[in-house]
């Protein structure tokens, strides 16, 4: 039962990303070409509300469902890993038209060739794990 | 019902994505889809090769459950909540992509020129998917997050590292879209 709420959030997320067309390769292309406001509107309004509510959560010390204080771990300091890793991710995002959430959602929409992308993403993750100590972070 | 079946505008979708993130935070977790790649490698035994995969993956089952839900959500949205309308892309996008050899622009979520089995099962087609997936997986774990973890959650939590990562996403995405895609798909 304790997993049911996560299943429901996942279902909700999958529906929203399909209905918003954020899972569409075409929308990603259009975003990177600055030819439509659509994706910027989605990300911008999500972040605007996110900032507002995370601030409210912290200010009023809202407790999570488990009764603990809400505590979003700060990201580790650094520049190299974020700019280099981010750029590599950007290459893949613009080529596949899908980031790690949409990859799974698109399988659900019936695009089974996406399993190849997911498999390759797992390989990329594995290779990162092997090289982690040798890369600048 | 008509409004649900049509594509949802950004000012509906964006807030609902924020809601997704906030629900996970309220549940004591965080919104980060790419962590699941690390978890799946760990389940597959990658811990034998690197410390990066040596952790208690069972603590991440909640996130795999979100993934399972997302797959189901994708199915529900396309089977029951869509009227099959084409994606309302800008006319510029459509004509550019036509020139690059994409013929059914916006008629479905993904271009058959990349994702149809006919194209996937060619040397070029499979290379595109494998290279794209590899870059996404490697890059997102190197950067410590993807669109959900950095662009939505990290920026919402005013994290400078997430802003740097998102700038990186755009450097890579812009180079790919402006300079490399025309080389791959152009005549």
Automatic annotation (TrEMBL), chain A:
This is YeeE/YedE family protein. Keywords: Membrane, Transmembrane, Transmembrane helix. Pfam families: DUF6691 (PF20398). It comes from Arenibacter arenosicollis. InterPro entries: DUF6691 (IPR046513). It comes from the Bacteria. The chain crosses the membrane at residues 38-57, 78-98, 104-131.
From TrEMBL, chain B:
It is a multi-pass membrane protein. Belongs to the TsuA/YedE (TC 9.B.102) family. It comes from Arenibacter arenosicollis. Keywords: Cell inner membrane, Cell membrane, Membrane, Transmembrane, Transmembrane helix, Transport. Its main location: membrane. It is found in: Cell inner membrane. The chain crosses the membrane at residues 12-28, 62-81, 125-143, 163-185. This is YeeE/YedE family protein. It comes from the Bacteria.
């Amino acid at each position: 039962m304790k997993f049911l709420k996560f299943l429901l959030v996942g279902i909700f997320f999958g529906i929203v990303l399909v209905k918003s067309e954020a899972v569409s390769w075409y929308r990603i292309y259009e975003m990177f070409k600055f030819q439509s406001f659509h994706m910027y509107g989605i990300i911008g309004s999500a972040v605007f509300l996110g900032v507002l509510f995370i601030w409210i959560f912290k200010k009023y010390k809202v407790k999570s469902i488990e009764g603990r204080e809400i505590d979003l771990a700060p990201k580790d300091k650094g520049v190299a890993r974020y700019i280099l890793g981010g750029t590599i991710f950007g290459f893949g995002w613009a080529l596949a038209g899908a980031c790690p959430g949409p990859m799974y959602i698109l399988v659900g929409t019936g695009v089974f060739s996406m399993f190849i992308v997911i498999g390759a993403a797992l390989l990329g993750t594995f290779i990162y794990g092997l090289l982690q100590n040798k890369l600048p972070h | 019902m008509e409004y649900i079946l049509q594509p949802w505008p950004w000012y509906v979708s964006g807030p609902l994505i924020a809601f997704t993130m906030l629900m996970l935070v309220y549940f004591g977790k965080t919104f980060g889809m790419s962590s699941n790649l690390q978890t799946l490698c760990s389940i597959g035994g990658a811990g034998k090769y690197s410390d990066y995969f040596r952790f208690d993956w069972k603590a991440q089952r909640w996130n795999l459950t979100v993934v399972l839900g997302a797959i189901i959500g994708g199915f529900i949205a396309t089977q029951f909540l869509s009227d099959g309308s084409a994606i309302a892309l800008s006319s510029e996008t459509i004509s550019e992509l036509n020139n690059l050899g994409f013929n059914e622009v916006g008629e479905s979520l993904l271009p058959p020129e990349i994702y149809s089995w006919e194209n996937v099962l060619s040397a070029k087609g499979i290379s595109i998917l494998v290279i794209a997936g590899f870059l996404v997986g490697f890059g997102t774990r190197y950067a410590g997050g993807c669109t959900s973890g950095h662009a939505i959650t990290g920026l919402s939590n005013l994290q400078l590292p997430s802003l740097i990562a998102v700038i990186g996403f755009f450097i890579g995405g812009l180079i790919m879209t402006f300079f490399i895609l025309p080389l791959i798909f152009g005549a």
